[in-house]
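User: structure tokens for TetR/AcrR family transcriptional regulator, please.
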Amino acid sequence: MTTKEKIVAATMQLLAQKGYKSTTTKEIASVAGVNEVTLFRNFGTKKNIVIHAIKYVPKMRRLEELATLFTGQLVQDLQTFMATYIQFLADDYTQVLMSIRDEEMYEELKPLLVDLPMQVKLSLVNYFNKMLRLNQIKAADYELIAVEMMVSCLGFVQADIYYGDSWIGIDRDTFIAKQVKQIQNQL
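Assistant: Done. Predicted tokens:
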């Protein structure tokens, strides 16, 4: 792992645990195993680390490439999408978003934070249109269905973070299977 990657990983970890305001550059440097001067030399400010993380975290890039995993098998593809998206959201991203949400810097970061979900939604809509051209599904409001899928994944992850299995009542795979069945009925 490069020095920059260590700093970004430490920042994401601390943001998820403590929030943006409560996380200091000194703590970030300590968790990353670098000198605070190294942190400033690489990024300048804590805000720049967050911006870099949002733009360049490899997990996020993999999510944008999710469409390349689609096989043309509707149920399998939707299950793959939902499992991958839930894992992505569970891997600190949701908690980081929640820690930034109430901060002044949220408005400045909002365009970056919204870009990835917009790209994911576009990939899903394009997938649905491709499946329509192949006569695999019927015409529907694909944008709404994509949003429903993404929001249900986000809701599942947030409920799991806050309440665990006791509130949700079903495991991830069962949730995905039931959601995919409902989506399949719309298509």
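User: Anything notable?

Assistant: The mean pLDDT is 85.
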